[in-house]
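fyi for ur records
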Amino acid sequence: MLVERGLRAMNVELVSEAYGIAANYLRRSGAIPDSLVTDERLLGIIVKLIQHGEFNRIRLANKAIARFEGQSEARAVA
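which gave:
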């Protein structure tokens, strides 16, 4: 998944766990569709957080959820 996106080596397990936590919450809240397709915007947020030094999977998921919802609200207003 990450190799295809041209990213440098990173902890794939960490990305996967954080994405799983965040996506599960966002699916249950209705923010993203309930499908097996990876949400590129959410994945991008998680990757950026890791690149900026966040390595705790729970904090990653929580920050990604907050940013995702904040971006969604900003898009709704615009």
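Helices lie at 12-29, 40-51, 57-77. thats all i got for now
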